[in-house]
Amino acid sequence: MSRHDDYGNSAWPQSGRSGRRSRKATRRHSAPTLILGTLAVLVALAMTVGSLTAYLKFRSVWDGINRISVASDMTGKQPPVDPNALNLLLIGSDTRSGINGAIGGRGSAGSRSDTVMVVHIAPGAHQIAVLSLPRDSVVPILNCAPEDGKPGQTAQPATDVEQINATYAFGGPGCLWKTIQQTTGIHINDFIELSFIGFEKVVDALHGVTVCLPVAVNDPVSRLHLSAGRHHVFGREALAFWRTREGVGEGDDPQRIQRDQFLMASLVKGVEHSGVLKSPSKMLSVIRALTGHGYLTTDDQLTVGKMLQIGEDLRGISTEKVQFVMTPWTSYTGNAQWIHSSQSPATGNANWVQWVQPQANDLFSAIAHDTKLPKGTNKKPGSKTAPAVHVSPATVRVQVLNGTTTAGLGATTATSLSQRGFNVVGTAGNAATQDYTGSVIEYRSAAELPSAHTLAAVFHKVTLQRVTGLKPGTLTLILGSNFTAIKAATGNAGIQNLAGTYGGITGNINICKDSNAFSGPG
Predict the structure, then answer these.
(1) What distance in Å separates the CA atoms of residue 262 and residue 505, rounded to the nearest whole number?
(2) Rounded CA gap, 466 and 214, in Å?
(3) pLDDT tens track for 64-76
(4) Other CB atoms within 10 A of residue 324 CB
(5) Angle between the 35-42 and 304-314 helix axes, to the nearest 10 degrees?
(6) What is the spatial distance between Cα 392 and Cα 135, in angstroms, rounded to a whole number?
(7) Has residue 40 got a pLDDT over 50?
(8) Which residue from 157, 156, 186 is spatially nearest to 78, judged by alpha carbons?
(9) How far is CA 126 from CA 55, 120, 317, in A?
(10) Can you tell me the distance from the alpha carbon of 412 to that of 418, in angstroms, rounded to the nearest whole number?
(11) Do the beta carbons of residue 300 and residue 488 sit within 8 Å?
(12) pLDDT tens, position by position, 287-341
């Protein structure tokens, strides 16, 4: 039983499963659909700001939305409902059926959830938080009934896991919904799914989106070919930007999520400045793009009344109150069971990631309950003004070297940084000399400064030093004799500071500040 790779070289199973099955890592280019997941909830605004005529026109296209029941997977105990907020599961399906096959490649059978987000709408706090879950995240395999053409799946032992995009591929949106609820503790109210072509249509309806590239990109897989600098792109190119990964930066999914967050921020600003939210006719054009030809799918409990309420909740929320964060992650260290696979556990799951604890659960709990978070700091040591931090610790690659005569200091620090969510490269070694008094973070170029600031934030005192000969994309941390341990995560920060605490961004970010998301190994 084989899984599908990036290029559509093998098919996904189309029949039901029981017992164990192959866990082959599936790395695909992301369906760009979830940018417009957030727009899908905005369609209600046409009704809240429009006339009776606009309302009637909206109802005329409402039936164009596909709806499925997820009731069979919603049995048993669920996380408590947050009475003060709404959580929407946004799914990017990479189905290759119909016209979508011309975009993503027709060699791929089935569909996967290549983009997974939870949008937390808190009207009382005038906040929106968009949480991205890497599609290569490992999650437990739960019992899920057949649904929406998917065969369903049988629960496996706790040691047997799957990528979260496979959860959708086998169990459908209800299974993904159930799995996210059980692993995060966040109550999901509804789901929204959009297709490749739906994304293109909506971007075109919004008259395009502006992107910014620090380097030229020529990706034959996503078909993105753009020079460095700002570009105003429309449907097809916007889709390619969302999907691009081949030959860009590290080529991994978490770094792609960073780039996509900047694209979403640009789209949010574009919607705000276009006046579309104040024009029933403009909004209706977006609605038609979303609902036409089966591009949009929701659960059957997402009613007109709920959409009205969502529209009212979103009214007046400014771009700086829209936050984009990614679940803290690190490389998967487990040894999942592999059955009927030509690859071994040691090599087959090389691309899998796992969530870093307790940081991930702190983030999930804050979203689930609107509670406070462990405080993060953006302050550069020795400075009076905190620099902007736009990266997650999970995206910061760091090599740890011991510049002292204290045995084991490098190894214990490397472990502490890994537990805090940083991507520690290799085994801690010794610096060229062991006479360092102060600790030093070496970085190669200005593009790596955001990463250096993120790393510096967990030290009481450290010096940042530019060293042009370093390997691109990896920082070097040299520990000095005045170092004892990294800072403890103490204090509290409200949910309004999710982006600052977890290295995310807000909707008013300068879209040309994402150069770190394009940096890769030399």
Answers:
(1) 8
(2) 19
(3) 788 899 999 998 8
(4) 27
(5) 100
(6) 16
(7) no
(8) 186
(9) 25, 11, 6
(10) 10
(11) no
(12) 777 776 778 888 999 877 777 667 666 666 778 888 899 998 888 887 655 432 3
Residue 263: CA atoms inside 13 Å, Cβ hemisphere, count?
30
d(CA 150, CA 130): 27
Nearest to 286 by CA among 244, 89, 278: 278
CA angle 483, 487, 491 (to 5 degrees): 155
Segments making up each domain of the chain, as ranges: 32-208+257-327
pLDDT tens per residue, range 238-287:
989 888 877 677 777 888 888 888 888 888 888 777 777 666 677 777 77
> Could you tell me which residues are beta bridge partners of residue 353?
137, 331
* Among 87-96, 122-131, 155-164, 399-408, the least confident range: 87-96
**Pair 112, 28: CB distance under 8 Å:** yes
Tell me which DSSP letter residue 432 carries: S
Give CA–CA dist 111/21, Å, rounded. 18
Percent of the chain whose predicted confidence (pLDDT) is above 90: 25
Architecture of domain 32-208+257-327: 2-Layer Sandwich (3.30)
Coil, helix or strand at residue 410: helix
Give me the phi and psi of 409, to 5 degrees please. Answer: -65, -40
Q: How open is the CA angle 8-12-13, to the nearest 5 degrees?
A: 160
Give the Å distances, CA to CA, from 297 to 186, 311, 356, 496. Answer: 21, 18, 32, 30
How far apart, in whole angstroms, are the C-alpha atoms of residue 29 and residue 365? 30
Consecutive H or E run containing 267: helix 253-274
Q: How many whole angstroms separate alpha carbon 437 and alpha carbon 408?
A: 17
User: Comparing C-alpha atoms, which of 119, 259, 256 is closest to residue 192?
Assistant: 119
Q: Which helix (H) or strand (E) holds 280?
A: helix 280-291
Two structure tokens written together for 136: 């290569």
**Cα(510)–Cα(386) distance, integer angstroms:** 17
Q: Helices 164-184 and 359-369 meet at what angle, rounded to 10?
A: 70
With bands split at pLDDT 50, 70 and 90, how would you rate the model's confidence at 483? Answer: very high
Q: What is the separation, in whole angstroms, between the first and last Cα of the chain?
A: 36
Q: Whose CA is closest to 500, among 398, 375, 330, 357?
A: 375
Q: How far apart are CA 168 and CA 116, in angstroms?
A: 10
Instruction: Judge whether 262 and 284 are in contact, CB under 8 Å.
Output: no
* DSSP, res 466: E
Lookup: tokens for 208: 């395009």
* Cβ atoms of residues 229 and 213 within 8 Å: yes
What is the spatial distance between Cα 477 and Cα 475, in angstroms, rounded to a whole number?
Answer: 6
Q: Looking up tokens 């739906």, which residue turns up?
A: 198
Are 446 and 425 in contact by the 8 Å Cβ rule? The answer is no
